[in-house]
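User: Okay, second chain of the day. Same drill as before: sequence in, structure tokens out.
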Amino acid sequence: MAAVRGFRHRRVLGGAPSTAPMQRNVGGADRTARIVLGFVLAVVSMATVAFGGGLGPDLQLVVAALTLLLAAVFLATAGAQTCPVNSLVGRDTYREKSRL
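Assistant: Same drill. Structure tokens below.
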């Protein structure tokens, strides 16, 4: 595929080619906090499944699913180094590495 201004064309969900890469806006301490919080929430989800019998089966399932979903969101945004909420509020903690 041809390059346009340094970007490669990417197909977005089988649609037209996209030339705009995702803007990185998560880095440093923000990224580290998302990774740690993601793993903590995953452990909380597993603990809810293993030891949350006192909550009742319905509430146990809801709490475990929500904490697992939040863990996945935090880990995905840390891995992709982009967060839609950061973009909406204009927050950018990503710093480009200097190439010496």
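The longest strand covers residues 3-4.

User: Thanks, on to the next one.
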